[in-house]
Amino acid sequence: MALELREVVSIDIPVSLGVVWSHLRSPELVHRWFGWDYDGLQAEIQHIFLDTAVESKDVAGDETIYSLSWPHHDRLTVRSAAHVPHVTHVTLTRRSHEGMSSFDGVRDEIDEGWIAFLHQLQFALSVHPDQTRRTLSSFGMPSGDRNDRLLDHAGLIGVRGVPVGGHVHGRRPDGTLLGGTLVYKTPLQLGIRLHGISEMFLVLMETPAAHTPPHGTVDAILSTYGLHPETFAEVEERWTRWWELAAPRRSAGVSRA
Asked: pLDDT tens digits for 196-234?
């Protein structure tokens, strides 16, 4: 029986194939987009991209296709976008959920991770090429019920109704304005390009109530690039205040870079 595969995420990045591939093979370059800052990130990058990934290269006519494959049939394919010069198409496929004991029918953690990470790659290469990243993150924040939603308190009322490419605007609990562009959205994620002193990328990942009762949780990851240490400290202070004020009665675990 043929193995059934499914597409998890597919993106176009406006840079050359060689540049994208190098950002999948060099640990230093992977660090500019993958995951978020924490003590074990370097070891995680080593394990995923070097120790367990198998790379391959195929040539079909004038087209070169690179890929990384992992156990359990996860596969990342990188190729030039059809008929579009200097654009690279990246696709992540995984095996069907059928019969997978690790999938609870509600949320696939690995799927959600790859969706976020490849959009972070797209942002890094298209907006901040060659710049060093620092992240801020907050995990496991209770979503709240429909009348007391965390994202509403955070100034993101109605963000799910914004079309991809549309403008996101709001006001944080401390009164500061929030503006950006919605880059992507899925049933459990949002990606927002924040405008301000520097373009930043905010990923919001939602875990539904069926997976984490009673109302689900929200994870937030902010990627910043090229900020002076003093400026980053200001952003970090605002980040911490943002989520603490949005959820004053909840336990919001803010993780510093």
From this structure: 889 999 999 999 998 889 999 999 999 999 999 999 999
3-state DSSP helix/strand/coil % of the chain, to nearest 5:
30, 35, 40
Q: Omega into 85 within 30° of 0, i.e. cis?
A: no
Identify the CATH class of 133-255. alpha beta
Q: Is 181 exposed, middle or buried (0-12, 13-18, 19+ CB in 10 A)?
A: middle
Contact yes or no for 45/34 (Cβ under 8 A): yes
pTM score of the predicted model: 0.92
Q: What are phi and psi of 177, to 5 degrees?
A: -80, 150
Name the CATH code of domain 5-127 (choices 2.60.120, 3.30.530, 3.90.980, 3.40.30). Answer: 3.30.530
Closest by Cα among 99, 100, 240, 128 to 194? 128
